[in-house]
Amino acid sequence: MAVSPGSGGLEGRSAAMLVAALMLAILAFQLNCSMISPALPEMAMQLHVSLTDISQVSSLFFLSGSICGVVLSRFSDFFGRRRMLIVVMLLCSAGTLLSAVTHDYYTMLLGRVLQGASSATFQLSYLLLHQKISRRLFGTAIGVITAVNGGVGGVDGYIGGLLSDNYGYQSIFLITLAVCGLALLAVSTLLPKDTPGVAQGSMDWWGAAVLSVSIVFINVYLNKGSSVGWFSAQALLYLVLFVLAILAFGAIEKRRKTPLVPVDHFFTRHFWPVITTTILILAGVFSVIGFAIIIISQDTHAGLGMSAALSSLLFLTPPALMGFVSAPPAGWLAGKIGWIKTLRTGLMLCLLLMVIITLNPVNKPVLLIGLALLGITYYGVVLSCISGLSVLLSPKEAPSSLTAVNGASFGLGAGLGIGLIAAHIGSGTLQGFTHGLMISTGLTALAVISGFMLKMRDA
């Protein structure tokens, strides 16, 4: 049985303060992600490393986020949601300060790993909303939190570029450090105290360690596969290690009284379709919004030949803005007519838009309108519903288990999708663009099928 948001939960001013504090915490993570990307070339120059080396600044940030999202959100079942969120913000603040003052590449990487822990703010926020807020406001609150996933309406990356150009990349970290400080203050003062008894038992640290190792292996496989070939010896080694780690994880979980992920729930239609839908929709749609269209729009041979600034303005900002505006009403609608029904509608609309984009890979008006509408269907509807369902469908005895694992699925899906289409999109030909977009559309179709496999638990 899953636990629904309580009808006697927070309303009015108390609910608004809770949501505001959680938005600040998530914004601290998001800004450390989006504002840094334009500054990577300058960071490489100042730290005296190559562009390939500096890419680890982002890679380790997301890898740390995937692991911490799983481990820390599950640990919060025993440690307390509010207390864990405070710890996460302290880690993020320490990492941001370290990144701002260092001139050493490896110290910078350590700082980014510490910052990556703030990825857990998403899972912890969803769990806190489920635990503290009223049933009537739960859907809308989920949508509001999901809206922040796109940053400050899509303009934070542009602001990061301006700061880097005029004041150096350190200025970005100082800005995000201030946000971390505000978030820490808000979480400490505005969030209600933790209540005991969220879950019985103790944290499964062995399971957490093995699952973390498996996340590392699958991420390395995706990176190797996209660069040296999916069936190369180097890539397959990490795929085999991933499979062995997952088998070991399953064996460990069966022997634990309080497993990280209850294995008997994992294979039900309340659990695994949430994970597969997340992986597939990220692989299908995010790979297009966050990668393919940017490459196509800037390609001077078969693409649109735009500058980086114009490309971002036309094709990144509109989807982010539309998602920011549409996520709260989408969450409200899901709470009214049903989470799964709303999710399936969003998935089917995503598929329709992906087909249109695939048929018009270099048609500027079609791309502009199609991507803006994807901002509504993908960022607004699908991500809000996925986030809500990951909480609502978690088993009662392990209330963060599905939320934790699903959080790691976001990075896995994005990496998989980009890896599968990178060679096609990077070919610089119209045929290559079309083939890459067809793969993404196929993955989106699989996400629709996965969404129809999902079912709610009995109340």
From TrEMBL:
Taxon lineage: Bacteria, Pseudomonadati, Pseudomonadota, Gammaproteobacteria, Enterobacterales
Domain Major facilitator superfamily (MFS) profile span(s) in chain numbering: 18-459
Membrane-topology descriptor: Multi-pass membrane protein
Transmembrane in keyword set: yes
Keywords assigned: Membrane, Transmembrane, Transmembrane helix
Transmembrane residue ranges: 84-103, 136-155, 167-191, 203-222, 228-250, 271-296, 308-333, 345-362, 368-393, 405-426, 432-454
Name assigned to this protein: Major facilitator superfamily (MFS) profile domain-containing protein
SUPFAM superfamilies tied to this protein: MFS general substrate transporter
Species of origin: Tatumella morbirosei
Molecular function (Gene Ontology), one example: transmembrane transporter activity
